[in-house]
């Protein structure tokens, strides 16, 4: 039996009864998996929110978080980035997280959000995790859409290049792509679901039960699985970060921003998050000393703090429509 979606025992391994999964086609015809969860009919609508996941991610991992926003009265929706999860892939090998440039992803987000805003009640908020946060931030920087709010969970504004300096790592990636490895895996470790206690689990969350949800969902829907990124993905990531951090970019953003992140994140560059927060005109940054990368799927003692920050941001900075 499905557990009450508004209780602490929400079933993270079942779709809510009123959630709709369908397809969305971009203007160039690219096929995407889309999900929509209308606000509850028995209470006032708080607004509308798009939630976008990270690289190689699936939205199913975040059903628990989505349920909290849904219970608060939000219309919710999102789509799988082209090339991963349930959307059309770039390569015949579906295990490679490949992309030539991040620009088509940003164009997809612009097209999706433009139509969504015309069809749903405000206020309109975008929420995103990791690579999804990179693309959402580029969207704010490049398009300045004037959304009512933007929430970033551990945004991948820059990838961690250690032990190499960033410019050296970007150069190495370009050379591998140039000499025939563009669509090959850039690494093999820590990009696939693995057993609790593994190094990958420790990078993502301290909560073993929440970590295990991913493997369960992939077991049910193996077509959603994707592996490590390609060398060309790395080339595109470094190029996109360079564009994002150019002079005068963040300073143009008018949307109120909340960033929640892990101070010692080993998958994304925490220093880049700090730099962006300082440059954004209207931004609040909350960083936890001990959390891992997937802050919305952390242990309750940490996750509750992140969710409280988000709730407070929405209450204070995203006023309800009259």
Give the helix/strand layout.
Layout: E1 20-25, E2 31-37, E3 47-52, H1 63-71, E4 74-79, H2 103-119, E5 124-129, H3 131-143, E6 149-153, H4 166-181, H5 199-204, H6 208-220, H7 231-244, E7 257-262, H8 270-279, E8 283-288, H9 300-317
Parallel strand pairs: 3-4, 3-5, 5-6, 6-7, 7-8
Antiparallel strand pairs: 1-2, 2-4
Helix pairs in contact: 2-3, 4-7
Molecular structure report:
This protein has helices spanning 63-71, 103-119, 131-143, 166-181, 199-204, 208-220, 231-244, 270-279, 300-317, and strands at residues 20-25, 31-37, 47-52, 74-79, 124-129, 149-153, 257-262, 283-288. By secondary structure, it is an alpha/beta fold. It has one domain (20-317): Alpha/Beta hydrolase fold, catalytic domain (Rossmann fold), CATH 3.40.50.1820. The protein has an eight-stranded mixed β-sheet, sandwiched between helices. Helix 4 runs antiparallel to helix 7.
The tally of helices reads 9
Overall CATH architecture: 3-Layer(aba) Sandwich
Fill in the CATH topology. Rossmann fold
Spans of at least 5 consecutive residues with low confidence: 1-7
Number of DSSP-assigned strands:
8
CATH class: Alpha Beta
Beta content:
5-15%
- On the 0 to 100 scale, the average pLDDT is 94
Strand order of the largest sheet: 1-2-4-3-5-6-7-8
Helices and strands, in order, run as EEEHEHEHEHHHHEHEH
Q: What number of domains?
A: 1
Radius of gyration: 19 Å
Please state the overall shape, judged from the principal axes of the Cα atoms: globular
Can you tag this structure with a few keywords?
disordered N terminus, 8 strands, alpha/beta, Rossmann fold
């Amino acid at each position: 039996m499905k557990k009450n979606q508004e209780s602490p025992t929400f079933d993270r391994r079942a779709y809510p009864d009123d959630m709709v999964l369908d397809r969305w086609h971009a203007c160039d015809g690219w096929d995407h998996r889309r999900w929509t969860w209308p606000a509850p009919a028995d209470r006032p609508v708080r607004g509308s929110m798009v939630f976008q996941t990270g690289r190689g991610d699936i939205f199913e991992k975040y059903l628990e978080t989505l349920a909290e926003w849904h219970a608060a009265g939000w219309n919710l929706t999102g789509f799988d980035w082209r090339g991963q999860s349930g959307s059309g892939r770039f390569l015949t090998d579906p295990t490679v997280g490949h992309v030539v440039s991040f620009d088509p992803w940003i164009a997809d987000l612009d097209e999706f959000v433009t139509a969504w805003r015309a069809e749903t009640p405000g206020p309109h908020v975008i929420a995103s995790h990791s690579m999804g946060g990179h693309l959402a931030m580029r969207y704010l920087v490049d398009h300045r859409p004037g959304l009512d709010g933007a929430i970033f969970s551990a945004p991948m504004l820059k990838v961690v290049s250690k032990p190499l300096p960033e410019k050296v790592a970007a150069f190495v990636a370009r050379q591998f792509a140039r000499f025939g490895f563009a669509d090959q895996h850039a690494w093999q470790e820590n990009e696939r679901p693995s057993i609790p206690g593994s190094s990958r689990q420790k990078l993502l969350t301290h909560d073993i039960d929440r970590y295990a949800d991913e493997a369960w969902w992939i077991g049910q829907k193996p077509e959603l699985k994707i592996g490590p990124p390609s060398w060309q993905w790395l080339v595109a990531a470094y190029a996109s970060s360079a564009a994002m951090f150019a002079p005068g970019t963040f300073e143009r953003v008018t949307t109120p921003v909340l960033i929640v992140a892990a101070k010692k994140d080993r998958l994304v560059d925490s220093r880049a998050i700090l730099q962006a927060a300082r440059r954004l005109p209207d931004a609040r940054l909350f960083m936890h000393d001990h959390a891992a990368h997937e802050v919305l799927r952390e242990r309750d003692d940490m996750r509750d703090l992140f969710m409280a920050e988000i709730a407070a941001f929405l209450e204070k900075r995203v006023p309800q429509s009259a």
